[in-house]
Amino acid sequence: xNTPIFDLVVTDRIIEMAWEDRTPFDVIKIQFGxxxxxxxxxxxxEIKPSSFKMWRKRVQGRKTKHGSLSGRFKCxxxxxxxANKISKRN
Length: 90
Fold this sequence. Notes:
Elements (H helix, E strand, L loop, with lengths): L7 H12 L5 H8 L3 H11 L2 H11 L18 H5 L8
Helix pairs in contact: 1-3
């Protein structure tokens, strides 16, 4: 698989999303059009080998990185924020 070439800003955002524990690979695929294997290739190419090994060890088999294995992440404050009365003041 060939990983598409992205500009620096997009590459940094993909790395940031991949590094986050709660961002599933499915979300990266929707936003940037690259699947899990391509994200792995990009991470291998763009970050230090020791950082890549640490990331792979952490991510491998993790339910939250695979959207099909986990439910949608929802912050426990999400309902409170969307029903925020302060933002509705005149």
